[in-house]
């Protein structure tokens, strides 16, 4: 397997006195689809925000693309940001811009494309997430699932090397969700994009994940790590078994 | 990773031949598009593109194909792709490039002046109508509270009294003190010429209690609290909190508006009294410090100038201003649609509208007073 693009070493994270996770250690390799699992409120979004430099670790260090994640070092942080794309759990679309403008923003800001080429590319991005024709809509005029897909299109805008997606399929219908899985796998295979995805969708995990980690709020640590199929079939941990063997209809 | 691409262009009499090599992605495509734009027109009917050397291509590379197709169609021909690698064919299929996306700008076009004027006018009409219904609902809610005061959310009301009143004390005190100081100082220069120093006390007291005290306080409250009301309710609208209140059976007018309005009406008159006292203290400092007036003389003059009516009138006015500021703030917040930008506009509009209404009301009241007590 290729060199790690993200390393997490001894990461303790929390807010004030409240420790969310203690002493996390894992690597994410180039070209992986790395899935983070865990009950709601266990710290998945917090972990993601640490990996993109929005929060500072209480202890430990994180490297991304071979560079220390240190938001105070402006130059290095910008070099990291140029290689990553992030989709936040709530979508975080700019409410004053229409969908097209949201997706166009990083393109006009960080690429040499101009004029009609930007418009065309924006439409191709929206087409890939199934939102073609909605470029003139404001975020408030869309459903939650549509906002989520638009946010994914914006995160994809520059085809970054590493994409962080926080619950991309929550709120999506099964067909959009499957389409999203296909898109993730495509980008992963054709462009070698590394994905770090938070998701609960069991079918999606089994389709896309090359490796998963499972966080546990009670022990504030990782309780399982590895190939999702192997974990499903062989894990001895009761939580992990429960997660992978839940009855259909209880997903979500 | 190799991110460079090559483009060879040769223009024959009957065909334009292009050879693309390397990686077609966000790094290389802008340069290629620029070069395509420089190919002299008119173009020959046939455009042949050799894609055999394309090693990698992403959706951004598809822009090149789209552009070549457009060029071919413009000259009435068709793009001929040669030696297309499988990965390129697969990408073009995935992007369904056979039916290219609609052309046209994605930015919202700014409407022309006439349209904007029309929209603004409709907006004002619409706003006036909804203002009336908002005021109606607020009034019935407040009236219903007279009958059943127990329905008021007392905890919220007290917390707003603190935020609107107590928290504003330092800034109101400071500004009023300085205002009194300035008024006394400026008028002293004139009044001294006539040996009428003592009337500095009258001027400061009367001007503050009748006009400036209520107005200054109202402006500060509009800036501090009117804007905060609009932002608070506006953000709640954006995040569907107001919808949640409604579906839980709470009346927004009772839950959100009444505590703010009642707190403001109770506390702003007190703030005004406080403002008057500080301004008089400011005048006193100048009077005693630089005009050789005694403390007693200054205070006696102040007391003899002010009638009970003046004091009550000022307090009444500030209660009216408080009613205006708080309802306008809540109303503007309540009308927020959309997102963050809309909250910002509501906040601005709350402050501007309430200051305007305060001054307007003050003028109207001054006219009424003129005929009522000539
Ligand atoms: N900004 C914050 N301040 C304080 N605590 C927070 C903050 N954000 C999240 N938390 C806490 O951190 C824990 C993990 O939250 P989060 O990472 O959002 O969970 P999830 O796994 O559902 O994404 C929760 O206990 C939450 O209360
Ligand atoms: Mg989360």
Report on this model:
- The complex is a heterodimer of chains A (252) and B (374).
- With 252 residues, chain A is α/β, with parallel strands linked by helices.
- Helix content of chain A is 37%, strand content 25%.
- In chain A, a hairpin with a 4-residue loop joins strand 9 (211-216) and strand 10.
- Chain B is an alpha/beta fold and 374 residues long.
- Chain B has two domains: 5-94, Transcription Regulator spoIIAA; 149-372, no CATH class.
- A four-stranded mixed sheet of chain B has the order 1-2-3-4.
- In chain B, a hairpin with a 3-residue loop joins strand 1 (5-11) and strand 2 (15-24).
- Chain B is built from twelve helices and four strands, in the order ββαβαβαααααααααα.
- The interface between A and B is medium-sized, with 35 and 35 residues.
- Magnesium ion is lined by residues 44-45, 89, 166 of chain A.
Keywords:
heterodimer, A: 252 residues, alpha/beta, 6-stranded mixed β-sheet, 25% strand, B: alpha/beta, 2 domains, 4-stranded mixed β-sheet, 12 helices, elongated, binds adenosine-5'-diphosphate
SSE order and pairing:
The complex is a heterodimer of chains A (252) and B (374).
Chain A lengths: L3 E12 L2 E12 L3 E6 L5 H8 L7 E6 L2 E2 L5 H8 L2 E4 L11 H12 L5 H13 L15 H13 L5 E5 L7 H17 L3 E5 L3 H7 L2 E6 L4 E6 L1 H7 L3 H7 L8
Parallel strand pairs in A: 3-8, 3-9, 6-7, 7-8
Antiparallel strand pairs in A: 1-2, 1-4, 4-5, 9-10
Helix pairs in contact in A: 3-4, 3-5, 4-5, 8-9
Chain B lengths: L4 E7 L3 E10 L4 H10 L7 E12 L4 H13 L4 E4 L3 H9 L18 H35 L6 H11 L4 H24 L6 H40 L2 H7 L4 H39 L4 H11 L2 H27 L5 H33 L2
Parallel strand pairs in B: 2-3, 3-4
Antiparallel strand pairs in B: 1-2
Helix pairs in contact in B: 1-2, 4-9, 5-9, 6-7, 6-9, 7-9, 7-10, 7-11, 7-12, 9-10, 9-11, 11-12
Largest interface: pair, residues per side: A-B, 35 and 35 residues
Average pLDDT reading of chain B: 90
Helix-strand category of chain B: alpha/beta
Termini separation of chain B: 89 Å
Range of strand content of chain B: 5-15%
Helix content of chain A: 25-40%
What is the chains' assembly state?
heterodimer
* Largest β sheet strand count, sense and barrel closure of chain A: 6 strands, mixed
Radius of gyration of chain B: 35 Å
Q: What fraction of the residues of chain A are assigned to beta strands by DSSP?
A: 25-35%
Say how many strands of chain A there are. 10
Order of helices and strands of chain A: EEEHEEHEHHHEHEHEEHH
